[in-house]
Each structure stands twice: as C-alpha cells, then as structure tokens.
C-alpha cells in the first residue's frame, strides 16, 4: 500500500511487455510478432499511466493506497481499464453434499468486501427429461426462491440444484456472480423427526426480556463412524443414518427450528463447525464460537443471537493445563498431588471449558456469563469429574465474580453425571464432603478425598428428566442447563420427545434423530 505508484506502473508495463513477447513466441504468427517487438521476442514496453476520475494523471510518487481510487482509469498502451477498488468477490461457494427434501439447504459462502446477508441468491433446479430419457445438455429452471437458505420440496426429489450467488456489500455494490451445482440430486427425507413436535413451541424467537437456551451433545462424526459404533454401540441404527452428511441435514433443521438465543453444543467436529454449522446458523442470525479439545478433532461450540447479544470476552480453558499453570487452582493442585494416580488421570484428559461473556444489545448493563463443557465420560470416573468441575467452578467464579462482578451464569453441558452423582450434587448444593462415595468411584486405590465449595446458587433449569442420553445399553440424565437462581428464572421448558418417539427405532441415534443425546431447551427470564 505504501509503495509509490510509479513502481507499480513500471511493473505492470514490464509484465505487459513480457505477456506480449510470450504470445509472440507461440503459434504461426511468431515471425510477425518478433518483427513488431524489435529484437528477438523483446516486445515494446507500452506506456502505462493512471488517470483519476476527473481525468488528471495521478503523479508517480503518490502511494498505491491513495492512487487507486474507484472510477480511476488505467491506460496500458491503447487499452483502457476502469479501476474498481475492493470490489465484492466470492472466495468460496459450496453446497452440502447431501440434500434432503423438507430440510434446509445452507450454502457455505465466504466473500471479500461483501457479506452473505447482502449477497443475492438465485436457486435453480434441473429440468426433468421429457419422456423419461436422458436430457440432452443441461437445462436449468429457476425456482421462486431468492433467499440464502433453500428448502427443497418433495417435487424436487431426484433433481440436482444450482445456486447462483452475486456478492454484495450492502451499499449497492455487487461483484461477479458465481455458480455452484449440487453433487447429487435431492433425496427423500425421513418424514417425521423427533424434534418436529418441539418446534411447535419454538416457532418464534422469544422477547428481549427472555433468553432461549439450548444444550446438546450432537455426537461427533469421529465417534459415530467407527466400526465399534456401527456394530457394538449403535447396531440398531441404519448405517446411512450414522453418516455425517445425513445427520447434518437433521441437525441443521433441528437447531434452526428452536429459534434459540444461546446454543451450547458438545462433540462438535472442527470441520462440521467450519463448513456446516457455522454457515447454517449464521443464516439464522447466530454467531458461533468454537473451542477444540487438544489431541482430538472435536470440541465445544457456543452460538449466540447477534441482534440480542454481543461478545465482550472469551475465557476458555483446558482443565489439565489450567490446573497446572493458573494460580487460581494452586490449592486444588497441591491437594491433588497427594493422589498421583488420580492426578495423572486428570492431567491426561483433554476436556475443555468454554466461557463467553455476552452483553445484551437492548440493555447493555445486562451481561451474561455463558459456560459450556463436556466432562470425562467413564462410568467409574466420578472422582475425575469432581476435579474437573472444581476447576470449572473456580474459573467461572473468577470470570463472573472477579472480572465482571455479579453477572449471572448459565452453565450448559454434557456433564456425564446423573442426578445422584457427586458432580450434580456439588453444582446444585455448592459443596461436597470429603467422604462422598464418588471420591472412591474407581476403588480404594484411586481414592482422593477433599472438601470442595463454590459460591453460586445454581439450579437445573430443565429439572432432572428420566434421560437425556438413550442408547442400546444405557439411558440416563447426563446433560443440564444450570442457571443462576439469583438472577434468572425458568419461563418454560420445551418438553422432551415422548418415550414412544425416542424408542420408535429402538434407541438413538436413528433415521429421525441425529444424536444419541436429546437437546435440552428452556426459556429463561431475567429476575
């Protein structure tokens, strides 16, 4: 940007001459071109100048940043080029691999000097071949849809889709359009899904005094697609329904239909966040934050509604790292050192805690500390989970009491803990005794006993459902949305699917439910 214009023009002149001489060396016209260019292949260097909009030549010492203005004209020999400065341009336009009738198709749109919400979208469908034979050449018929998200009807089953997108910057400037065709045709959807009835309660976004929160372990592809998952964990699930493209269709429709203000997800594959969920939920007004688990390809995602909240700060941690390095946990770390076996297990885990501080856009003094986690999974790991949750609560206290005094907390996650566990009891009561049975959850040799406490008054907003996880060999309540009783109250809990719906295909996941967990949804109100 700081380079003087003269240097840039000289470079353009040299390149133009090179291009000319290269063209001259090709094909049968080479002799003639050489003759024009003088010496062997040396093309004459054209005059290159830049003129501003009002027709004055721009001086060569002017830096590039101010020389190249919209509407300026570049002369290269006799050719004239109009200058467009930072025109809107698409850098990526992709359609999902799997398209299902009745499920929203959300393209991935990346652009420079443009924003997806200002781009123009035109959707086309393949022409059905007349008389059932193969169509000669491809004919496309424009659909009535001109929105960023397109939901194909059953009439489109068997046909491919095409999207034409024109990048725009919201100031009536548009760049060159690009087109993308779907790799396969629209397929028939599964019919009724477990979340359809729940959507009847969540048609509209709730008012400014309320917050609709969702917590959901969406089952990472990393775990769903293993041989072990297909044969041992979920043998009852049709193999195609475990595939990521299929599950993403269901998931995007499910999440979009909840009209949520806050969504905390666990087991989110990095590629699923980047290529699928973030672009889709962005189209529905939600901004996403992602935190990967070290050593793994999945992590946590928190989404918040852009017109209700803005992000003030992020305070994510990995439990093992924080325990070792942050002075905040020094005392706990010293206690833990007395139990080397347990300490080693705790430090081996890659579990993380995502903490985001949000500010209300309509009432800026109103702030919210949103925490999201996925604790260690092993049935006998109660003692490990207690250490993890102790680190989590100290960290949340640091954010919601020290950094932002007295802001309300919403703590979502898959805690891998039933209501009878030490972890649940610690979160809801504020303390745990050193003789709690969970300190010996993996036998005497891994006992680690300590007294823990935290200052919050937390309540499970959705209560204690019979189960939030339902697989062949287990069902139980493992997921919670804990809220600050002092500042928030529950307005409504969206009912979970009926037992009949959950067990229609034996257990979860299934063709009509994309995860082995069930989403928790509640509307909260500021007190």
From TrEMBL:
The keyword Repeat does not apply. GO terms for molecular function: metal ion binding; poly(A)-specific ribonuclease activity. Gene3D superfamilies: Endonuclease/exonuclease/phosphatase. Residues 87-187 form the 2',5'-phosphodiesterase 12-like N-terminal domain. Residues 19-32 have a biased composition (Basic residues). One of its GO terms (cellular component) is mitochondrial matrix. Its cofactor is Mg(2+). Residues 13-40 are annotated as: Disordered. Belongs to the CCR4/nocturin family. This is 2',5'-phosphodiesterase 12. The lineage of its organism: Eukaryota, Metazoa, Chordata, Craniata, Vertebrata. The gene is Pde12.
């Amino acid at each position: 940007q700081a380079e003087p214009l003269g240097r840039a023009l000289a470079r353009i002149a040299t390149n133009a001459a090179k291009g000319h001489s290269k063209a001259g060396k090709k094909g049968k016209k080479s002799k003639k071109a050489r003759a024009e260019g003088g010496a062997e292949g040396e093309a004459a260097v054209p005059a290159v100048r830049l003129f501003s909009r009002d027709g004055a030549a721009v001086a060569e010492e002017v830096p590039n940043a101010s020389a190249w203005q919209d509407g300026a004209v570049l002369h290269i020999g006799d050719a004239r080029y109009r200058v467009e400065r930072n025109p809107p341009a698409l850098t990526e336009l992709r359609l999902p691999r799997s398209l299902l009738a009745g499920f929203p198709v959300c393209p991935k749109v990346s652009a420079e000097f443009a924003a997806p919400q200002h781009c123009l979208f035109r959707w086309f469908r393949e022409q059905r071949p007349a008389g059932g034979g193969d169509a000669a050449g491809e004919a496309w018929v424009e659909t009535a849809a001109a929105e960023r998200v397109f939901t194909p009807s059953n009439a489109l089953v068997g046909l491919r889709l095409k999207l034409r997108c024109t990048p725009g910057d919201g100031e009536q400037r548009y760049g060159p359009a690009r087109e993308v065709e779907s790799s396969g045709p629209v397929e028939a959807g599964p019919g009724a899904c477990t979340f359809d009835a729940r959507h009847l309660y969540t048609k509209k976004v709730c008012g400014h005094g309320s917050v609709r929160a969702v917590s959901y372990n969406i089952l990472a592809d990393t775990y769903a697609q293993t041989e072990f998952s297909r044969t041992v964990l979920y043998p009852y699930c049709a193999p195609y329904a475990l595939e990521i493209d299929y599950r993403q269709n269901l998931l995007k429709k499910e999440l979009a239909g909840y009209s949520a203000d806050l969504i905390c997800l666990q087991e989110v594959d990095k590629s699923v966040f980047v290529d699928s969920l973030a672009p889709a939920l962005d189209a529905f007004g939600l901004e996403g934050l992602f935190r990967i688990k070290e050593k793994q390809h999945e992590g946590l995602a928190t989404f918040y509604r852009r017109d209700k909240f803005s992000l003030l700060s992020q305070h994510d941690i990995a439990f093992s790292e924080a325990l070792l390095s942050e002075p905040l946990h020094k005392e706990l770390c010293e206690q833990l050192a007395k139990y080397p076996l347990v300490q080693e297990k705790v430090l081996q885990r890659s579990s993380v805690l995502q903490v985001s501080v949000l500010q209300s856009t309509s009432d800026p003094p109103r702030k919210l500390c949103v925490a999201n986690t996925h604790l260690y999974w092993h049935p006998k790991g109660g003692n490990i989970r207690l250490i993890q949750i102790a680190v989590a609560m100290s960290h949340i206290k640091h954010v919601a009491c020290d950094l932002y005094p007295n802001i309300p907390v919403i703590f979502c996650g898959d805690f891998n803990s039933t209501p009878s566990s030490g972890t649940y009891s610690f979160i809801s009561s504020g303390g745990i005794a050193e003789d709690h049975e969970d300190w010996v959850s993996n036998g005497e040799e891994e006992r680690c006993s300590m007294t823990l406490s935290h200052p919050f008054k937390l309540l499970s907003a959705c209560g204690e459902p019979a189960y939030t996880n339902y697989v062949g060999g287990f069902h139980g309540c493992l997921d919670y949305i804990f809220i600050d009783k002092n500042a928030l109250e529950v307005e409504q809990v969206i009912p979970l699917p009926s037992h009949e719906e959950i067990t229609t295909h034996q257990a979860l996941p299934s063709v009509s439910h994309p995860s082995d967990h069930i989403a928790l949804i509640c509307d909260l109100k500021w007190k």
